[in-house]
Amino acid sequence: MTAGKSQGSRWACVVVGALVLTVCVGAPQQPHVVRTVATQDQIRAAMNAEGKVTDPVPLLEYRTADTIGWFWTLSQAEGAAAASQHGMKPVPSRLGYLRRQAFPGSTPVYRLRGAQQAEYLLTASEHERQSLVDSGKFVQEGVLGHVAARRQTGTDALYRMSNGAERRVVPAARQSEFADRGYRIEQQLGYAWPVFHRAGAIYFGTFDRDGNQAMMARTEEIHHRPGDWWGGLRDFAGSGVPRNAWHWPGEDFTDREPAIGYYDDSRPDTLRKHVVQASGAGLRYFSFYWYWNPADGGAENYTEGLKAYMAATNRGQMDFNVVTCLHPWKDGTTALRLPAEQITKAADTIVDTYLSQPNYLRANDGRPVIGVCDARGIGGGDVDHIDVEDTRQFTDAIRERARARFGEEVLITVNGVPPVGAGFDGSDCLGQFDPSRSYRAYADNQRRFFSNFPGTLLRCATSDFDERPRIGIAIGDPGPDPAALRASFRWYDDADLTGFERVLAAVRADVAESARPSTVDNFVSLYAWNEWHEGGYIEPNRRDGCAYLNAVRRQLRLVTGNGCVATPS
What we know:
- The N and C termini lie far apart (59 Å).
- This protein has an 8-stranded parallel beta barrel.
- It has 14 helices and 25 strands.
- The protein is an alpha/beta fold and 569 residues long.
- It is globular.
- A hairpin with a 2-residue loop joins strand 2 and strand 3.
- 27% of the residues lie in helices and 23% in strands.
- Helix 7 (268-280) crosses helix 8, helix 9 (343-355) crosses helix 10 and helix 11 packs parallel to helix 13.
């Protein structure tokens, strides 16, 4: 398809994305979209999806095909079309992050296009914009995005510089470099975010009476406390019960108690407190594990924590998404599989119940993000393999429902390297346990681990991994022999806060040097908010308070929120 042209301009229009839209010259406040192959409803939905991302998104830079100019956009779809339809070449310039919407203290940045050649220009000056348009040399293309008019927390200056032959957009960190190459500052566009990590945490929402029934039954049998979903953790910590750390009596396990106390996550007020803690530290989302129970025709299962979040009075302070765990086994009397005949029902439940929410997590390109932590329980899969055909039926069903309900596309990632043909857009990663049993080795190998995943990757960081509190209630006691204990349980002997900071620093460096698609390239999934029985938690605890959340804020340079509050009122 050939892009449309206006008189005297070779680059009047840019084809946008898979929907084959054409963005043409329009009003200053909003680029005009004209219909080509896509319907008007699809056009509106695509533009609306992108506009729902309120966090800063990366400013993308392209070299025009005839190499006489540069092109900038916040739209990944527009950038991809500029490359595929017009031969522009993406440049990994790392210019910073802008917001698509105006915000307190912001100023708009306008994009202008040369009337006679493929030359683009950005300006934050209303006077310059109007003057250039009145001169006939440039045509306005609308508002590119928004920057801070004055320095705000986490922002730095963004300049437009020129060497007389071309104009470039230059972040403050590279201003001296460009000056040495003969460029001079033409205009300070404003203040943008040099980095903006969208960090979130896995939420394990089963600390309630409807949680793991088998573990509660064993807690009653071993510790003589009926209906205690905190069995094992209370005992290791010695909180309110006689301390029983089994074969590890000399270790300090007081961190196994949440700072707000042992809670019921089916209560909205519990989730309100968690939102206060997490959003205050700068986290942007919770990823809730989501399960399916095939009994009686099939229904979602273990969603009490998620439902409590949906009812929390402050849920709007954080986004959320679902990470489907379709395991090929039973959890007590509950099976966690998704039979092939229930795939459509499960997909419809996810889309209708959660993607319809206004603060559902979206990628930088506006697509809602769904994770799959385990696909082995889908259809004909088993503990040793994924059924690719049935998994593709599941991912297709989600996309078809989202298109039918909202006219939107969905980004679906899987924990691991995506099997060919299964319908995944990329990878994510959850809790990691290094075979060496050394957290130091895990930290050292984190970036090497990321290199195993091609293309789109939602990165992860594991705070710790320690299954020992499950002894007796989920994993049998093998006796005191050290070799038998190590064969039965996974735990890091050397995990500590310093090591976690090293992991976060490695994640930060990998993002900074990345050449991956920018769709979710600044996302970081933390394992976990509250995977207490597996030792993965950054939720404030009795011993360490906000130490782990503060480390996340410090190492990932998070700028939203006013700081962690360990015990919200």
